Amino acid sequence: MGTDAKSPLPRHVAIIMDGNGRWATRRHLPRVAGHSRGVDAVRSAIETCGRYGVRYLTLFAFSSENWRRPQEEVSTLMRLFMHALRNEVGKLRDNGVRLRVVGRIADFDPELQQLIRDAETVTAGNERLHLSVCASYGGRWDIVQAVRSLLATQPELAAAPDSIGEDDLARHLALAFAPEPDLLIRTGGEQRISNFLLWQLAYTELYFTDLLWPDFDEAALEAALAWYRSRERRFGRTSAQVAAG
Ligand code: FPP
Description:
Structural class: alpha/beta
Number of strands: 6
CATH topology: Undecaprenyl pyrophosphate synthetase
Bound molecules: farnesyl diphosphate
């Protein structure tokens, strides 16, 4: 796939990585085997985005609602996160990737919280690819925490609510450092947002595929990028306006 300037690649790709459990169950394996293969697919997505010059990659790894899963699966996922952080952070650092973990980090075990802080610190100087892993994250939580944060920093706004604009709130969202996603990919066959980036997806192109996350390889991501490049993004304008620039 080429990279001509007429139809640019997305600057920011967000992914709902669904289907690990089904991938494993179809092979008569425990669900954790699917999550484990899911980590391999994460590595491949990071490498492919790096190669194509995608600047921001945001992954939905664990939702606020995922805490409701069986205790054993939750603990296994936490162990997997810790293992991935310990083993991959050096590679991220050396390849220009800046890692941020976005969500209610305080919900996690103190050991995992420390690993997250360390990984963020070690990669803080990088800017080739901004990788955000959303964990214990929910889009509604994000909007509520943004309102709280806005009013905490500017308490005078509580008495003048009409003066609050969209940009004021957007500055306090957890992903305020990133442009809004251009492309959202959801694997696993479902066509819903599942409380992911509710505010930020307002104008995002949505791409759904039946592939299960562990099967979402380099070619699959390239197909999604090619689909994105074929879209015309109008942001509320007409086709003629877009053509006129
Ligand atoms: C959804 O599949 C996947 C998850 C809830 C966990 C995602 C975690 C990973 C891909 C591994 C770790 C990630 C990082 C960033 C190190 P599912 O279990 O809901 O699948 P199902 O719908 O088939 O049951």
